[in-house]
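Data availability (excerpt). The following record was deposited with the supplementary files.
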Amino acid sequence: MTTLAARAPVERFPHLPPGAATGSRIDEDACQRLVSAINELALAPGEWPTVLQLLGRAFNCHYAAAITTTPERDTPRSLGAVGITADDHREFLRTWHKRNLYGSRCPTRQAGAVVLGSSIVSRAELVRSDMYRHYLAPRAIEEVVRLDVLHECDRSQSISLARTRSSGPFTDAELHFAQTLMPHLQRAVVVQARLGDASAAARSALAALETAQAPILLLDRRGRVVHASADAERLLREADGLSIGTEDALRAVAPSLSARLAALITRAVGACGEPGTSGTLRLPRPSGKPDLTLVAVPLPPRATGPGAHHPAVLLQVADPSARANPQRALLVEAFELTPAEADLATDLLAGLSVREIADASERSIATVRTHLASLLAKTGTARQSELVRLLMRLPRTPNG
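Predicted structure:
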């Protein structure tokens, strides 16, 4: 198998044979444009079509495609394709990816390798294959080279370039040019992958906030709201004791309370290199509902310094009038409750008394107390108040 490991980039790029479209050699400016486009991939994944188009021109290829998949070649995803439509490429991945002669014959990847398709499968064998007859031949995909850009424990990323047989096999100069491009491609996709991982972790963290029973707000160093959980957004829309003022800053019902709220956040942020400290504040509500209790918790600073919109404070809002409402199915599964016991748990969380539950369900108080005794035993609690506290601490699921 013809495999070339990536080397350090050189100052000047090797010239390639004349391109089919222009009849002229690939010049240094074109190479530099290609490298610049590759480098932009790190922060702009949407630039894959541009990079693939430039690669196609550089290698005299009418087809170029990039995919990411697992090392086991499962769940492939198209990053971009040139020479075919996006739907066509996705259809290829669905139908032929696992049966791809090149991939199945050479499943082991080496990051930084440039692999000729002809070194994996002979032309005689290729033209006899179903993949060639049904997919490759109708699209004039005959001479193929694969760039194995990334290969990690959880993902693999590669670029395939192809041209017609009449364009001739890939030359040593072209393979070395691909080898020269490889470090640039690797840097771009590694940065892109790490940024994607960080973004996914951030989304997961924000989704985790939604499982909290209390409204959660993330604030920056100036006290502006960076993120609000769904419960917090509802609370802010109601503007009953806490709302959004100018420049996305929080405000209370009175200027004096707004000043105390700002001081609470400032103390949590910290100053002059000193870490912030936690604090609490009670806010009255115009509606007459029980006061809100705010708890401000400092968040670790970024190693690179404060950002304009970087979360610096976690603000948790305790609303005594809000009722915990864990998903009924979660209660049943967690404690092996019967439907009647699950209904009782839900009613207790809603603040109903045993008599009110009995009247609403048209059951005797004795029957409800029997269910309550079973509920206490299954949850390992001794008193009704202890049971309610336990149920209130249960996280909510997205369906809750």
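Summary of structural features: Residues 1-25, 303-307 have pLDDT under 50 and may be disordered.
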